[in-house]
Specification:
By secondary structure, the protein is an all-alpha fold. The chain is built from 4 helices and no strands. The chain has helices spanning about 5-35, 40, 45-55, 55-70. It is elongated. The mean pLDDT is about 85.
Length: about 90
């Protein structure tokens, strides 16, 4: 098995793990944010809700999970080996 192919497979598995972890963290945060929407029913305005929610860790779980998921899908630039195709020495 080619070493570069093995490295690519490991990279894909790690990126899939990071994406799954990001989705899990974002889901935990989203459930909390949706739960806190009940405050608007009890008389909070959206402005008061926002000022309450920025102090809660659920907002940062949600944002961090989305960021992790997005970063796991970004392409990684790879260095190309410079091979001389003509076989001549420069």
């Amino acid at each position: 098995m080619d070493v570069s192919l093995l490295g690519r497979g490991i990279t894909i598995v790690i990126r899939m793990f990071i994406a799954a972890f990001g989705v899990l963290i974002a889901a935990i945060g989203a459930v909390g944010l949706i739960g806190y929407l009940n405050l608007t029913i009890s008389g909070y305005t959206l402005y008061e809700y926002w000022h309450f929610i920025i102090l809660r860790p659920e907002l940062y779980f949600f944002a961090g999970g989305l960021l992790l998921t997005a970063l796991s899908f970004l392409p990684i630039p790879r260095k190309m080996k410079n091979k001389n195709q003509s076989g001549s020495v420069e």
